[in-house]
Amino acid sequence: MLRRLFQFAAPVFLLWAFVMPASGAEQKEQAVSLSTQDGWTLAALYRPAEDGRKTVVLLHDIGKNKEEFSTFKSNLASEGFGYLALDLRGYGRSLDKGEARTFAKEGVDNEFNKMTRDVDAALNFLKQRGVSAQDTVVLGAGLGANVAAKSMSFWPDVAGLALISPSTNNKDVLSIPAMRLYKGDILIAAGAADKKGFLEASVIRNVAFLTAGEGKVTFLTAYDLSSHDMLDKYLRPAVIQWLKTPHKPEVLPDLPPEPEAPAAEQGWLVAPSSTEDALVPSVL
């Protein structure tokens, strides 16, 4: 009798196990394929965000690929952030229409500039999965930083932009024009040992500050490294903290003293507590 019950129950259990997803399965990394408007097929790795966390689109530097973010992806996952790390056209496994070493290095319409379409494909992929631009941050390193910056001209509603070792011009991908328009939260990081790169990142920071306003631009620096190396060795904790609190809270002015009511209207008077002054602290 027990054998017959087991024989009946086993297929039902197996069917239930197949239909019901394992707990937490939606947070596992998965390989996905993205299609761009101009016909490229891009390889990417996607991990959905946990409730209340943003998803970070990761754009690698020139000569690199999505695997450069392996360490940082672990930090994002441990904090519940989602990510979509992609091989930009011509790199990694996104080679169906050629390799980046064959791309023209100049021209406003070269393949490096067309990498903004790779960002379009990434953000449209997220949109199809219910992740809005307001729940998305785009982070790029080196060339990826310039591509990320330029993409903000087309995606001004993206919540945040993180630029690791950006430059004013990388393979004719310009970063400053979009910074004159984008008003979201911005993080910029530069290595001080590279004087030219540090100066250019500082100029980008100044333009972003004038556009986005006070409290929305964060500038980080390290001395001896840049790009992915700087992110991995020095910046990961700070970038994670920025993702949690991307802008400084607004500082409210002291409240003006309330006019004293005439004695006849005061009624029963209650003396202030000894801690009342601490409720409205002064800002020095």
Class of secondary structure makeup? alpha/beta
* N-to-C order of helices and strands: HEEEHEHEHEEEHEHEHH
Q: Calculate the mean pLDDT score and round it.
A: 85
Give the second-level CATH assignment, the architecture. 3-Layer(aba) Sandwich
- Taken together, the total number of domains comes to 1
Per DSSP, the total helix count is 8
CATH class designation: Alpha Beta
What is the strand arrangement across the widest sheet?
1-2-4-3-5-6-9-10
Largest sheet: 8 strands, mixed
CATH topology: Rossmann fold
Could you write a compact summary of the structure shown?
The chain is of the alpha/beta class and 284 residues long. The chain has helices at residues 2-19, 70-78, 116-128, 143-151, 176-179, 195-212, 227-244, 263-266, and strands at residues 30-35, 41-47, 55-59, 82-86, 136-141, 160-164, 169-170, 173-174, 185-191, 217-222. It has one domain (25-244): Rossmann fold (3-Layer(aba) Sandwich).
Describe the structure.
The chain has 284 residues and is α/β, with parallel strands linked by helices. It is built from eight helices and ten strands. 33% of the residues lie in helices and 18% in strands. An eight-stranded mixed β-sheet has the order 1-2-4-3-5-6-9-10, with helices on both faces. It has a two-stranded antiparallel ribbon with strand order 7-8. Helix 2 runs parallel beside helix 7 and helix 3 packs across helix 4. The N and C termini lie far apart (81 Å).
